[in-house]
Design a protein that fits this description.
Length: 191
């Protein structure tokens, strides 16, 4: 099974992102647009594991907590690694400091199970689109860079999350399908 740990967010934010993608998609057909309903904040990508690891993973994640819910504001657009050679168009996430703490606690809980620690720093974001290796036609790139520049401070919404999820990613020809396996409370004692 292919697993990851993530935070979800409410429908109005998904709807704001759906409207943005609908606006940009006709102008930028050379990129692979993500489905807004499948978007989430990945805390840890576990990857492929045998089914016998599922219960130990669940048990480890049950011990991950914070003193407060995670607060997030979805704002602005940008590119990884940069505008000149983009691989990803992203929506920024401004979060309370405990989001990074929860992500680090998830990682610490999983490492003893043989799940490798992330090699990169945790940077919360939503992937909106992925570019082909060549970056696509220059016109598409210019359109996206211009649109991202106009939306650098656009606010897509805010949320206060009290749960995180263990999710299975099932790869299909039309894209990944996500199946929520378990939900965990961020703040101990909250159900």
């Amino acid at each position: 099974m292919r697993l990851f740990v993530a935070l979800d967010f409410p429908n109005p934010i998904h709807q704001s992102l759906r409207e943005l993608i609908a606006r940009l998609k006709p102008e930028c057909r050379s990129v692979k647009w993500m489905r807004p309903e499948a978007m989430h904040i990945t805390l840890n990508f576990i990857g492929e594991v045998d089914t016998e690891k599922l219960e130990p993973i669940r048990a480890a994640l049950a011990h991950v907590h914070s003193t407060e819910p995670v607060e997030m504001q979805f704002r602005g657009l940008g590119f990884f690694p940069n505008e000149r050679r983009p691989r990803v168009l992203w929506c920024g996430v401004e979060a309370s400091p405990n989001l990074a703490e929860v992500a680090a606690a998830v990682e610490r809980a999983l490492v003893p199970l043989g799940i490798a620690a992330e090699s990169r720093d945790f940077v919360p974001h939503l992937t909106l689109a992925r570019f082909n290796t060549g970056g696509g036609p220059r016109r598409d790139l210019e359109t996206l860079v211009r649109a991202a520049g106009e939306l650098k401070s656009y606010d897509f919404g805010r949320t206060r999350e009290t749960e995180f999820h263990l999710i299975e990613s099932i790869l299909k020809p039309v894209g990944a399908e996500y199946k929520r396996l378990e939900t965990f409370s961020i703040v101990k004692g909250l159900a």
